[in-house]
Amino acid sequence: MRKFFTLALREIWEHHNLWRVPLILLLLVVLANFGFSGVASWIGLAPPEVSSQLVGTTLGSLSSIIFLVFSFLVLFYLVDCLYAERKDKSILFWRSLPISDTQAVLAKLFVAAVLIPVIVWLTIVLSQLLTLAIQSMSGKNTASLFTAVNLSAYWCNILLILLLTALWTLPLLTWFLFCSSWSKRTPFIAALAIPVVIILLDNILSVGIRLGGLIADRIPFGYSFGAGDGSFLLGLQGITTSHAYQLAFSDMFVLLRQPGLWLGLLVATGFTSATIWTRRWRDDS
Amino acid sequence: MQSTSDTDPLVSVKNLGKQYGPTTAVDGVSFAIRAGEVVGLIGPNGAGKSTLLKALLGLIHYSGELSVLGQSPRSDRAQMLQFLSYIADVASLPEWISVKQLLYFLSGVHPRFNRDLSLRYLQRTEIRLRHKVKALSKGMKTQLHLALIMGIDARLLVLDEPTLGLDIVFRTEFYDTLANEYFNPARSILMTTHQVEEIEQYLTRVMFIHHGRILFDMAMGDIANRFARLKIDSAQMEQARQYKPIYSHTAGGKGVLIFEQQSRESLRPLGFVDTPGLAELFLAKVKGVGDA
Q: Which SS3 state, helix, strand or coil, does residue B254 take?
């Protein structure tokens, strides 16, 4: 357990952006709030339904922006994590220690699929708290801001959604990981170009395999857990709906009933095994 | 965790082979290394040194039988590495990491790492905990790597050209530290290097490898009994050749001949007799008499 924790911690040391970017985002949130510090006063004057709607939309947009930034961060992290150690030859050192390649690869996947979603969640919660706190201090009639939306329910909701998203996108995440361990010089291009070409070919030829569609389904924002009804975005911005909490759970059951989820996990297992095998036996020297 | 008893060899190699396509890199090599040995593996580039080490370290597939500390390098690599330390390349420490992080990391992942032992060695150097690896000179990086090795309670240490590109001060300090502070009778060290002369004094045993085969394998103490070096004027070369040297060489009017199992008494009338160095012995074994 301590070994796994140490391996995950080392990823955060190496990839500064995993802690720097959230700090920068929070700083921007603070600056923006001081810039628009008058807004809260007139929100407080509006009728309860309207103010609740406004607060909800503002906080929901904050979540979406933070999520979007981190989507790119996960991509960069995964494509880099196994490639960087080969490029700077430090893989020779890491592999001289009693850490199996399975442990090393799974620790990196854990960072991408569990730790980063938790960091995203913390960033969202803190950014919303900061927004509410700064706005409350800066005007009159602002006490109602905190009660305008059901924050605790929303936060539970969003944590679940973030983890489910990681599960649903796991085939894509493990594909990036595989490219990082396999590509000789251009892991980033391989990681993006191959899926994009498949999607394009699929659209042009429409041969009926729908492989491109299957890949596109896994991209968050585009679709939602294969249901395609936009409930994912609704979930992130679902702060205004009174039943936000139930929404995530119903999403979870929709997701778990999808054969696509299980097929996806099978594909992810394949990519992960291939990544471990590549790291175990690749001999670049 | 199965481990070796005191009498079992730490490394046991039987008929080890490795093919790269049509090329045979290692060709049916067998040997064993016991606790308390410091073994030098000497050979020219492409002789199969690195391939042999890679097989021992579980980095490549191979044919034949290989047991390192009672484990198979292929299937039990991570367990094996609890008791085997190696430096593949001194430039392999990650540049972004700090010394403090490195020690913390090792404490977290290596069950046999003792941070205090590493710190004790680091205190003698100019390396500080706050330093990042990228700020260190090549010599200091080697010191840092050595400090980590000093902190790991391993039974076998494998070094592949550990001092390549280092200046003489760091090289000497490196080998002295290993010999005086790291090595003990329960441990073994296996190393390769181009600079044979430098490690000669630390070895207890030497192996020559050439074209993927072990040409020569002998305890250092036996070399003086078996081999003699004769230094003469080149005018006396013909006379000396009658004693059947295994190697002869002339340069600048002086001749050097190496003899195997020839009594030193019979050679002494011809010139100065002593024990050959490993470099000459290697040439003798690899090239033989024909190159005079």
A: strand
CA atoms lying within 13 Å on the CB side of residue B181: 15
Asked whether the predicted pLDDT for residue B86 surpasses 90, the reply is yes
H helix runs in A141-223, sequence order? 151-168, 170-182, 187-205, 211-217
Which CATH number characterizes residue B197's domain?
Answer: 3.40.50.300
Whether residue B5 lies inside any domain: the answer is no
Mean pLDDT to the nearest integer, A21-39: 88
CA distance B6 to chain A (A): 22
Whether A93 sits inside 8 A of B93 (CB atoms) is yes
**Cross-chain residue pair A98–B95, CB shorter than 8 Å:** no
Name the amino acid, one letter, at B189: I
Q: What is the pLDDT of residue A228?
A: 38
| Contact predicate B18/B62, CB 8 Å | yes
Domain boundary among B211, B244, B259: B211
Q: What is the ipTM of this complex?
A: 0.90
CA dist., res. A94 & res. A85, Å (int): 9
Nearest CA in chain B to A85: B94
In total, chain B counts a number of residues equal to 292
Q: Using CA atoms, how far apart are residues B60 and B57, in angstroms rounded to an integer? A: 8
- If asked whether residues B124 and B190 sit together in one domain, one would say yes
Residue A229 CB partners (closer than 8 Å, separation 6+): none
Q: For every residue of B116-142, which 3-state class applies, written as one string?
A: HHHHHHHCCCCCCCCCEHHHCCHHHHH
Of the candidates B71, B29, B83, which has an alpha carbon nearest to the alpha carbon of residue B53?
B29
With a CB-CB cutoff of 8 Å, which residues 85-144 of chain B face chain A? 85-89, 91-97, 101, 104-111
Residues of A with CB below 8 A from B105's CB? 6, 9-10
Out of A15-24, A64-73, A112-121, B175-184, least confident range:
A64-73
Alpha-carbon span B237 to B240, nearest angstrom? 5
